[in-house]
Amino acid sequence: MAAIATSSTSMPFPHPVLTPIVGEPTVLTIRKLRREIFANAASVHSPRGGGSNGHLALVMTPVAYLARATVAYVDPVHPGAAPVHVVGATAPQITEANRRFTQDQADHRLHTTVSQELRKQIIAAVESKYFAVLNDGDFGLSAVAAVALLHHLNDTYAVITPDDIERNRQQLSAIINIADPLEDLWLRITTCQEYATVAGEPFTDSTIMRLTLEVFDRTGVYDHACLAWREKTEDDQTLPLFKTHFIAANRERQRRLTAQAAGFHGIAAAAAANAANNRQRDAAGGAPPANNGVQVGDVRMSYCWTHGLVTNCDHNSGTCTNPRQGHVANATILNMQNGNNRIYVPRPRDAAPPNGN
What we know:
By secondary structure, this protein is mainly alpha-helical. It folds into three domains: 27-157, no CATH class; 162-220, no CATH class; 256-356, no CATH class. It has helices at residues 27-43, 62-69, 91-125, 146-157, 162-172, 182-198, 205-219, 223-230, 239-283, and strands at 294-296, 299-304, 308-310. A hairpin with a 2-residue loop joins β1 and β2.
């Protein structure tokens, strides 16, 4: 893959370097490049074209610019080598002619400089082979205007097929890794939504929420949050509230996991202490414990490879009646053998689990 050049500029652009397009341009990478180059062009003031859009006309067609500005942008014309004075001009007339000449020179110089800088930025952001058909044998791309470069990219590479639309829809429904930040999912949704809009088949907010709910359902860790969301009134089921709802649910899930892990480590330490006490008792000829549990304060718990720590001490790895595939019957709290390392907490909507734990 050819390296992409970087181009800095002396112009006060908000994007001194455009986001590089690595590999073949796509509808979304072209859209981002166009958004950045539009911002750069508009940031340099020009009194032309209504005076409120800077040099945006340099990267838009005249029709598109007129639709936005409602006033046509007329390119400045070079005033020549020297000011022209009418015969018999008075001193004030000469002064005004000189002023206009200087202003016209400055306007033309700025117009030309901004045009060149925008063109260089676009060329630097895209691999050269994607502009090869525009290359002139003697002048390269120096005579190709920035707007022509953008049109070439859009007409050649921003093509969306029905298969592309379907793949984008499938991406919106793809399963997530619950270990990844939830913000990654929101970014994926935004990208899919933008693509669908560009493709002319935008996703409605209700479609996004429905498909994302299905994703959450498949994770198995947002059951309560999904149920709570579905119970909300239609007025409360907006996309911004949807994101807020699941951000809060994810934060609570992480808090519970942290607390659970801390509790489990404390219980594991208690189990080790109990085991040491048992060894001392056995060495002294004491009676064996009634079961294979671990005492934590006033609570006695047992360990099951499938379910983790349970409060029913009749339920352990050897007595479990609802084992998971690969269940290890001789796993204990001190030798879990890659079993469940969490405290079993039945979900409120669940029926009582096997063995009453």
